[in-house]
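queue> pop job 88
queue> type: inverse folding (structure -> sequence)
queue> payload:
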């Protein structure tokens, strides 16, 4: 047994070990429903739309009135032995009638509670900012529709690739069966001395080539199924299989001109770029609004309360005798308190007229204008790319039909050629080379038919992506 044959047997054993977990067999429609429902790209685009919705709300809220609640509370304590206190927190200056050898402990509590209303009255940047945010939102929604199309095409292309790789395996298995039968015949003929040794070598080389092709086809099929599972966002341990065989879809029923017109008129990708261009134009106006005046209104009001407490005011009186002696009497302590509140309110109108900002507004306008011009070029480039894509896929679809027909005819002829060549070789009428050529041509024709059907279906799916016309 050759090393390559051992590899193929190992692959087969691995598949048998996985047979305990049945694969997820999906039709094309089931794959589309599963993939569109769990696509990570679509989820990301939904989040982008929601992000732009939040930006629209922020743009609107920028010009709505703002109401703020403010509160202030302070406490101060002063111990003094003089009658005048300057800059006492929250109440300013304070006069006390203190005599000699007197002192006072003062506690002051101040509380303020108020409301401030801020309202923009005139701002020339309001309209452009809201227009730019709304255009960005529409661009994100159009991009979401475009992503829906692209995700559908990606799922179909991966599904078609899995179908193609699955169709290639029986092609190589059939070719391998013929080469194995041919090798047995060559060995049998050689044992009776009717075939040269080179025929055995050529038959063995053909068998090894078919073993290599089969191993590659099996590997490509595993890769294609893995790609299909990834685009469907399935767990790594989930195995998938295509339930639909590789068959031709109906032909594309629209002309090239109609396809191009539809692709340019109803294409979310172009709509997204157009909305981005509108957003850039609005940003030009927003930059120009930086030179214009703005007017705002500020209204505030509140209530304040103050509590003044003197818990300890002490004085030591003196008695003067006629002989000039002073006698200190016992210290006298007193206390007192006072409290009150007041309300106030006021209004102010602020007018702002920019005079000079170092050229920032001028450069901002120039930058926004360049980006708007670049957006126009981007739209034209996208239109040309769409036209090229439609023409390419239309030509591919048109060429795939005769290719598959020719491949089918070549298969019929090739099968007869192989059977005839095998009989003629056994009879000693033709050399082995003629049979090898016929067998290889048959294998190529079978692979070509599968590839032509794949290109037919893929090109139709691509035209559905470009035009949005889904059967």
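queue> result:
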């Amino acid at each position: 047994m050759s090393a390559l044959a051992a590899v193929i047997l190992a692959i087969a054993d691995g598949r048998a070990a996985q047979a305990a977990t049945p694969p997820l067999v999906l039709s094309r429609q089931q794959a589309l429903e599963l993939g569109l429902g769990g696509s990570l790209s679509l989820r990301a685009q939904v989040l982008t739309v929601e992000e732009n919705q939040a930006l629209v709300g922020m743009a609107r809220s920028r010009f709505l009135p703002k109401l703020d609640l403010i509160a202030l509370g302070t406490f101060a304590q002063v111990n003094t032995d003089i009658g005048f206190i300057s800059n006492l927190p929250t109440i300013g200056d304070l006069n006390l009638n203190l005599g000699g050898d007197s002192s006072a402990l003062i506690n002051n509590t101040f509380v303020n509670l108020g409301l401030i209303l801020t309202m923009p009255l005139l701002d020339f940047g309001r309209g452009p900012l809201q227009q730019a945010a709304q255009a960005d939102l529409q661009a994100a929604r159009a991009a979401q529709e475009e992503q829906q199309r692209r995700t559908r095409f990606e799922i179909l292309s991966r599904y078609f690739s899995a179908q193609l790789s699955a169709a290639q395996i029986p092609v190589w298995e059939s070719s391998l069966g013929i080469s194995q039968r041919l090798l047995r015949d060559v060995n049998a003929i050689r044992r009776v001395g009717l075939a040269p040794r080179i025929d055995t070598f050529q038959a063995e080389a053909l068998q090894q080539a078919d073993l290599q092709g089969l191993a590659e086809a099996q590997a490509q099929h595993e890769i294609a199924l893995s790609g299909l599972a990834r685009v469907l966002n399935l767990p790594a341990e989930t195995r998938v299989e295509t339930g639909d065989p590789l068959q031709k879809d109906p032909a594309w029923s629209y002309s090239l001109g109609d396809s191009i017109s539809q692709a340019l008129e109803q294409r979310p990708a172009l709509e997204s770029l157009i909305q981005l261009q509108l957003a850039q134009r609005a940003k030009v106006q927003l930059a120009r609004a930086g030179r214009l005046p703005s007017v705002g209104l500020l209204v505030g009001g509140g209530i304040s309360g103050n509590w003044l407490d003197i818990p300890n005011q002490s004085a030591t009186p003196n008695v003067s005798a006629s002989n000039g002696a002073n006698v200190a009497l016992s210290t006298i302590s007193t206390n007192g308190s006072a409290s009150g509140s007041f309300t106030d309110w006021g209004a102010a109108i602020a007018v702002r007229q920019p005079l000079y900002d170092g050229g920032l507004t001028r450069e901002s306008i120039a930058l926004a204008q360049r980006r708007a011009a670049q957006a126009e070029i981007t739209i034209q480039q996208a239109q040309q790319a769409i036209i090229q894509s439609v023409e390419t896929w239309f030509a591919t679809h048109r060429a795939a039909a005769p290719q598959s027909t020719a491949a089918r005819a070549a298969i019929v002829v090739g099968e007869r050629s192989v059977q005839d060549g095998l009989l003629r070789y056994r009879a000693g009428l033709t050399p082995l080379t003629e049979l090898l050529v016929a067998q290889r041509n048959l294998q190529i024709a079978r692979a070509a038919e599968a590839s032509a059907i794949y290109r037919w279906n893929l090109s139709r799916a691509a035209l559905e992506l470009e035009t949005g016309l889904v059967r």
